[in-house]
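Lab notes, practical 5.
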Amino acid sequence: MTETENKESPTGPSLKSGADRIREAAKWLIVSFAAVGVTLFGGLQLADVGHLSADQPGRWVPAILGIILGLIGLAVAIHAASSVVTESYASLGWLGTADGASIKREIETDASLLGGFENVADLRSAIATAQARRKGAYEARYAPPPADESDSNRETRITAADAELVSASYWLQSLSQVEQRALQVASFRRISTAYLNARQQMFWGAAVTALGISLFAWGANPPEKPEAVMAEQILPPSPSNVTVTVTNQSGIKVQAGQDATLSKALGKDCALSGIDAIAVGATGDTYYLVSLKTDRCNPVYFTINPSQGKVVPREAKKDEPKSDQ
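Output from the prediction step:
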């Protein structure tokens, strides 16, 4: 490179603005991720979580897991975007490290970026030499003159010192322009590479967040249970003829003084799949029943609820007394 070269890279401003746009995009992504978390988690009906009980693990477990996954996903996405925002601009020193090795190789393949220097190390060494030269020229120009210096010698010395200072300053400025041109390319590559590396993390973080929000929304918003119709709402005011099908006789209460189990009280020949009975009343979903005496079944007073069996209306037979309906 000659001292007369003083070209400015036409791509410099555009590269810097491109790097700045990448940073701004990453900042907006951070704000967007945070807004998504606040809006969606805050907008869900959190009060419905209180409706979940310990006997609903199929709901509250996904809800809690969804919150955890959502927060982890947001943390990953925000961290990835933050790594782009906080990425520093490149320097010649950074290009000499292991992190900047790949970008340094790219720059060294383009001789125009280094102003004729073969590599970054040569450019860095030339800049250090130029800085030392300019410092020496400045000190020589403004050093105290010798006491016995004649006017003609002083004028000659100052003229030469001024010329050396201008030349050293111009040379250092030229090298600085080469340095800035190379660093603008390196900085853009550094920030764009950081964005490309973070993009996959942001994608997976957003995907995990979406999964977590979906799980939370599903688990925290169980379907409303239809109001159960109580047995006392179905029965007419007076006793009703019914047929009883017993599916689980455990817990069925029979008349005091009779055998503990319904099957023993009814008789061994009485089938539990079709007991003719009269419903004499109900409380909540519990029926109060009296089985009719037949050839196979004994008359027994007992109670039954939906978990123990089914009660359906029945037309009275001709040979049995009708309930007063």
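Observations recorded by the TA: The longest helix spans residues 151-220. The first strand starts at residue 240 and ends at 246.
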